[in-house]
Design a protein that fits this description.
This protein is α/β, with parallel strands linked by helices. It has two domains: 171 residues, Thiamin diphosphate (ThDP)-binding fold, Pyr/PP domains (Rossmann fold), CATH 3.40.50; 128 residues, Rossmann fold (3-Layer(aba) Sandwich), CATH 3.40.50.920. 36% of the residues lie in helices and 18% in strands. It has twelve helices and twelve strands. The strands form two sheets. A seven-stranded mixed β-sheet has the order 2-1-3-4-6-5-10, with helices on both faces. Strand 8, helix 8 and strand 9 form a beta-alpha-beta unit. It is globular.
Length: 321
């Protein structure tokens, strides 16, 4: 099924399994969301479970916090990545801090869904990648699936978590299809996964860039280069052990994400892996990402986003050491 459909099916399962699960957001009800991710849920579960809210992100998240205090498990949709900032105060000063502030007595089982990233030709404030801003905040878990199977199971695990989870959905991958086993036993939410074995260099990515890295590995293979691809899946916490094991084998690492390279998630990964693998590395850890500039108009986004050639150029630079 498509990634968007997998999220829809996962939300449906959660609504059926637990009467305390609620879905809230702008146009998530009768319309089914602008990407139709919540399509059909309002009809089947009613307006008390799938709630169309006013256009007020701060109010949406603030209400979700109150509901969580009363024992509910709200799943909040922020319609587009760039719309989350009116709610940023509620997320980082209230949602993220409540567990610590109460000395562990208060749980905050809130999931905030954020469609993010570019590649769909959208207008301003609709194609950003703000994941590092949330990963920096203690008390928040931050994840991003790259395929339909992970989208399904990671949503289940996020809803079941007693901690707040920021769930970034790669909107350019909404229509990518993959097999989804709804009866599988998923691995832990915050573990990375090697999705392609290799020996010469490791590519680490999450969300929308995992597919690109697999395409890069295919292209490199035609030149006799063997690249390993690691799907990070979780941005906070990061599964450094899996990355380290891969780098100790390949001795080279490139981190790829759509967000700007400057102070992006790749910076932390590069620093940690350099500390952990200093005597294994044969080249500095490289990063490929967006530029340190506002996201451009749609007609220029292909110049802004990492692509096959930019990642392959980084592969050439790494292997040249």
């Amino acid at each position: 099924m498509a990634l968007a459909k997998a999220i829809n099916e996962s939300l449906r399962r959660a609504l059926e399994s637990d009467p305390k699960v609620l879905i809230m957001g702008e146009d998530v009800g009768k319309l089914g969301g602008v990407f139709r991710v919540t399509d059909g849920l309002h009809k089947d579960f009613g307006e008390d479970r799938v709630i169309d809210t006013p256009l007020a992100e701060s109010g949406i998240v603030g209400t979700a916090i109150g509901l969580a205090l009363r024992g509910y498990r709200p799943v909040v949709e922020i319609q587009f990545d760039g719309f989350v900032f009116p709610a940023y105060d509620q997320i980082v000063t209230q949602l993220a801090k409540m567990h610590a502030r109460s000395l562990g007595k208060v749980k905050m089982p809130v999931v905030i869904r954020i469609p993010y990233g570019g590649g769909i030709g959208a207008v301003e404030h609709h194609s950003e990648s703000p994941e590092a801003l949330f990963a920096h905040v203690a008390g928040l878990k931050v994840v991003s699936p790259s395929n339909a199977a992970d989208a399904y199971w990671m949503m289940q695990q996020a809803i079941q978590s007693d901690d707040p989870v920021i769930y970034f959905e790669p909107k350019r991958r909404y229509w990518d299809k993959a097999e989804v086993d709804k009866e599988a036993i998923p691995g832990p939410l915050h573990t990375a996964r090697v999705v392609r074995e290799g020996t010469d260099l490791t590519l680490a990515a999450y969300g929308p860039m995992v597919k690109l890295c697999q395409e890069v590995a295919d292209a490199a293979a035609e030149e006799g280069r063997s690249l390993e691809v690691v799907d990070l899946r979780s941005i906070s916490p990061v599964d450094f052990d899996t990355i380290q094991a891969s780098v100790e084998k390949t001795r080279r690492l490139i981190v790829v994400h759509e967000a700007p390279v400057f102070l992006g998630s790749g910076a932390e990964i590069a620093a940690r892996i350099t500390e952990r693998c200093f005597y294994h590395l044969e080249a500095p850890v490289l990063r490929v990402g967006g530029y340190h500039a506002p996201y451009p108009p749609a007609r220029l986004e292909e110049e802004y986003l990492p692509d096959l050639d930019r990642v392959l150029d980084a592969v050439d630079r790494s292997l040249a050491y």
